[in-house]
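Sorry, can you check?
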Amino acid sequence: MSALTVVLIVLGALLLLFLIAAVILTQIAVRRNDATEKHFETVLNSPFYRDFKKRILDARDWLNTQKTEEVRVTSYDGLKLAATYLPCENARGTLLLFHGWRGGPVADFGYSLKLYHSLGLNLLLVHERAQGKSEGKHMTFGVRERRDVHTWVRWHTERFGRDVPMLLAGISMGATAVLMACGEPFEGDVRGVFADCGFTDPKDIFTAVARRLRLPTVLFVPAVGLLVRCFAGFRSAEYSTLTAMRSMTLPVLFAHGEADALVPCEMTKQNYAACASADKTLLLVPGARHGQSFPTAPERYTKAITALLDRTLCK
């Protein structure tokens, strides 16, 4: 066997292993996730939640004592989407909450639910497509989720009219979805947005993950882009928060933990820089990991959110 043949065999084997790894990682990235819904307490032992597990469990128990309503809507592409609605007496408005990738509304917002409710807000805890109680086979990193945001805004407007204004809140992929959704006019009285540790678009987050895993981005990112198009039917560069932010007019609070190892803090800085709104705030929290800005700096976070509510719900 010649040296060239050996080299070709080795290269072929490496390429095969690379492709297998790309397929596995892509499937993990986009395939349906029910773990947070079915194995809630086990998921809370992961690094993203375990430091605040007790507070999240307390929030779940508190929510279970409230008079809530399970809501269903149909997405633009025919999926049954689910949410839990918690009314507030003499509400100032409704906060629509969109959780992150492989997350859940209580897991991702548990440590803040009681605060939001105490501030006079109805809460709509949305289960993102292909997660939890909502239908769907694939997550799309904000590309289709942004349309679901509009679906929930329309539901609220049809149910309550324009007398009850809305604010949108998202964390991680949920933050990306609500920011992307702002690229088109809402069919309802949306007053403002707060987005915590969102990324810019699927391609950028795939690139960031590849770098963190020390994978060759020049090969990995195009491969994953092709695979997500084959598996989940969306393009990794199909839409961007940066595009949406160039026409943004709503007040928006951007937040990000500076110790975030999953979504680079730089992405929120880019979203903030691209945002055309005259009312925009950037809250960076030193030492906060992914999705943990609120529990890491509760006083700063609460102050920023309260200020946003006071500015947007006094009209």
